[in-house]
Amino acid sequence: MRQRFGIIISIVLALGLLIVINSFAYVSEDEKPDSEIAPNRSTYNARATGTRALYELLSESGYKVMRWREAPEKLLSDSGRQVETFVIIGKTPLSVEEDEAKSLLLWVKRGGRLVIIDRRPETFLLPVSGDWTINTEFRDYPGFGVDPANQEQMTEGVKPLLPVQPTVFTRDVESVMPSKFFSQIKFSASKDAAAKANQAHNTPFEDDEEPPPPANPNTDSSTSAGEAAKAVKAVSPAPVVHLSSSNAVVLLDYPHGQGRIVLLSDPFIVANVGIGLRDNLQLAINLLSSSDGVIAFDEFHQGRGVTHNAFVSYFAGTPVLAISGQIVLLILLMVWTRGRRFARPLPLPVVDRRSSLEFVASMAELQQRAKAFDLAIENVYSRTRRVLARYAAMDYNSPRSEIAKRVADRSTLHAHQLETLMRQAEEAINGGAISERQSIHLVRRLREVEIKLGLRMRSREVKQTAQNI
Question: Over the Cα atoms of the chain, what is R_g?
Fold first, then answer.
């Protein structure tokens, strides 16, 4: 036991030493402050450049929002069927790859809506719409001296933007306050497309033009309206401008297949520090809630993908993982050394399997087979009479009537009942007729007398009984 205690103490000391060494060796990384050079637009970030305020406000307002933590191709599976709006905010830590962009745009073609809120999105996220090309251009690049939490510095010299036309996105929006770093959205068409557009704009309708085909009265109005909308989208690939300054477009959307792509060129409008300015919040709600489906915020490219183990991510940057690894190595070393011989071989200990009460059990079985119940009762009664005589402070050979009377005086037992029990036992021992059931009942009564008087067995008998069990 002392050897095992020493091993346990050694293990505890080794683990404590590992913890102390890792705690002193660990140097915590200072949390990087928010900046417009390297912003964190995640919905988990509650600081200036984050979008947690927008996410929680939409969630508490009853909108169906979720954090999308899987790869974009999962939108094409069953898990992405309920998603109708997919939101990418800012320059993400994990860049959107071209293969991922193809899956995302395929989802848009099937009827999804992609909302991109970024000053300089990837060009492959802005596909050509018919003959129209869309891109962005910086007006003023953020510097290191700007505090993103300071609204005055972020909006210095910027005038509020007014809606260009009444649309779904500009409903209840009077003005929007962007930052001074918003980029300019540019779109242009080829010369042939521009000529066709001008000709269509300047040519009046003539009387001999064929009118559009009438709607089928047997067709549902919602279905015909949906087909008409698709037809309009098919013939109108041009972007629709919703918000702009005097010489820069800030918000537009355009069709892509059966879906649409929305582009807002300043994440400051939806960031925690800017969402409360002017009608920025109303504009954000209009952009994301124009449909009743689920609004999914891209957290996969924000570094919150489900491919990362949640347990490992929780303890990332702490010495817990290193300590756990060292403990595992220590346990494996102990198991390996435990199975190897350290010194000369020793013979196996010889354990005596025989019980000290095997003889008693054998005799009891012989007595049962021979129906020698008197002998069994004699073995029990002799001990009971001895302890009763000791309890009464009398000699063993004293008359049973005197022993019963003295025991009754010192206890709650009745002298007559005790004397009768002793007489029945002695008669059975002396050859009186008795059955197996009567002998068991008689022995049980003798044991009850011992229990009532508190006459416990001797330590040697208790030990033998425990070994037999």
Answer: 46
